[in-house]
Specification:
The complex is a heterodimer of chains A (241) and B (240).
Chain A lengths: L20 E6 L6 H14 L4 E5 L4 H12 L5 H25 L3 E5 L2 H10 L4 H7 L8 E6 L2 H11 L18 H22 L2 E5 L4 H12 L19
Parallel strand pairs in A: 1-3, 1-4, 2-3, 4-5
Chain B lengths: L21 E6 L6 H14 L4 E5 L7 H10 L4 H25 L3 E5 L2 H10 L4 H7 L8 E6 L2 H10 L18 H23 L2 E4 L4 H18 L12
The chains are: A alpha/beta (241), B alpha/beta (240).
Chain lengths: 241, 240
């Protein structure tokens, strides 16, 4: 099987030929997606599957540059987009692909859709961003945790009032006050996620349901994709996250 | 009227129509003598009264240190490297090149996106993909391509201290030792630059000539270009 995408193939057109599985979660801040992914990981590990986590913005080499740009507030929408794409591709090449080849389950907290939604909300050309991620591995399943804006905002703003500059979208000059800016920015991202749901095969999860109900449903979705995956006795498995 | 535009995609928040300077690119492979020529050209232009600014690959405030660190350990995947270079380029475009062009400077750039395209394509990147990545870049007023063949390049590189790991493509590698890899890698890079020269309409200069001759040729071409697109005609210059 040929895994090299043909010229001009769009993101999502080429499925990876490797034996592992890739499940990804998406949603705005406060949607509860990370909680769900952690619970899923515990279940899968308990079942004896090899599980690997890949988190957004975590490439050890690229992270220093991202941090430098954020701290000094020198990132523009263009360089913000490119440095995150760099980080993403480094993780795909070093973390995700080798583990998929090895037959592991890779769980990614945020994936290409985070970039599509955020960068577009920053005014970057939508087609250009999709082009940056054209070579990204297509997930086995992608979940979108749909949350009403007010619910997500309440979860985030009640617990952690100190918002970071780029997180609040302060670079866009939407509002002088970080919390007000954050609300406008998150609303834009949410709108864009809703458009992405129509454009890509994202499975929508109702993130207002009870956590355990969502988790049950998530496991039901995933179970059919585990058929044929190798596992070890759970007692032998070493937690890799 | 001369007006800047990009290779297709916009730079968020930037109207290329507000840019008034000149964007002059010097391209050519490693060791051909670009830096010497850029320095000479800068002197010539400043004597003629043009304000000159300069930039070159991996000189960004944002990403230069990160790229250097990544290269030390040779730790990034190839697409990640390509995008890291694109980040460096975008930072320099927005924070060095655009301000200079807004201020009416002549921006001399020691290599532009074309060398980055060449190094990416030689390392196996999908040419359409990497060209799309750089589609936000500004079309320069002119690209002067200092062309040389590998046999002429070898003595120059030896005189400059020998074969660099990356400039020999040793990350691939393309031969059993440094010299073989250098020859194979540079042959491929030069082939790719030749292809890009046709595609993007570079002005090709024979860089195998004595350095003074090439320098005079280059300055004469740039001065002609600047005169042709002068903002104001001679009669518009106020009398003292």
């Amino acid at each position: 099987m040929n895994h090299v995408p043909a010229a001009h193939s769009a993101y999502g057109e080429v499925s990876p030929p490797w034996p592992g599985r890739l499940f990804i979660v998406e949603g705005i801040d406060g949607s509860g997606k990370s909680t769900q992914l952690t619970l899923l990981s515990q279940w899968l590990q308990g079942e004896g599957y090899p599980v690997v986590f890949s988190e957004w913005n975590s490439s050890p080499i690229v992270r220093n540059t991202t941090r430098r740009g954020k701290k000094r507030q020198i990132l523009t929408p263009l360089t913000f987009s490119l440095i995150h794409a760099t980080d993403f591709h480094d993780r795909v090449e070093r973390e995700i692909v080798p583990f998929l080849k090895a037959g592991a389950i890779v769980l990614a907290d945020r994936y290409v859709f985070t970039a599509f939604a955020r960068d577009f909300a920053r005014g970057v050309d939508a087609d250009w961003v999709r082009g940056l991620y054209r070579l990204a591995v297509v997930p086995t399943m992608a979940f979108y945790f749909r949350t009403p804006l007010e619910v997500a905002l309440k979860r985030i703003l009640s617990g952690r009032p100190k918002l970071k500059w780029y997180e609040a979208g302060m670079d866009l000059g939407l509002h002088a006050e970080p919390q007000a800016s954050y609300r406008i920015f998150q609303a834009r991202i949410l709108d864009e996620y809703e458009r992405l749901v129509k454009e890509y095969p994202l499975t929508v999860m109702d993130a207002t349901r009870a956590i355990e109900t969502q988790q049950k449903l998530l496991r039901k979705h995933i179970a059919p994709h585990l058929v044929g995956l190798r596992r070890t006795d759970a007692m032998h498995a070493k937690v890799t996250s | 009227m001369r007006r800047f535009e990009t290779y297709g995609k916009n730079i968020p928040g930037v109207d290329p129509g507000e840019l008034t300077g000149w964007l002059i690119v010097i391209e050519g492979t490693d060791g051909v003598g670009r830096t010497t020529h850029v320095n000479h050209l800068r002197g010539v232009l400043e004597r003629e009264g043009y304000a000159v600014a300069e930039t070159g690959l991996t000189r960004s405030d944002l990403a230069a240190a990160g790229i250097r660190r990544a290269k030390e350990g040779n730790t990034l995947g190839s697409n990640a490297y390509n995008l890291f270079y694109a980040t460096d380029f975008a930072d320099r475009l927005e924070r060095q090149i655009l301000p200079a062009l807004r201020a009416g400077f002549v921006m001399l750039t020691d290599r532009y996106t074309y060398s980055l395209l060449a190094r990416a394509i030689v390392r196996g990147a999908d040419p359409d993909w990497i060209k799309d990545v750089y589609s936000f870049s500004l079309k320069p007023d002119a690209v002067y391509y200092l062309r040389i063949d590998v046999p002429e390049l070898v003595p120059r590189v030896l005189a400059q201290g020998g074969f660099d790991y990356w400039e020999s493509g040793m990350d691939l590698p393309m031969g059993t030792d440094l010299f073989d890899s250098f020859v194979n890698y540079q042959t491929r890079v030069i082939d790719e630059l030749d292809r890009l020269a046709l595609e993007y309409g570079f002005e090709t200069l024979d860089a195998t000539r004595p350095i003074d001759e090439t320098a005079d040729d280059l300055s004469a071409r740039v001065l002609r270009l600047l005169a042709r697109h002068s903002h104001e005609s001679e009669d518009a210059i106020p009398q003292p």
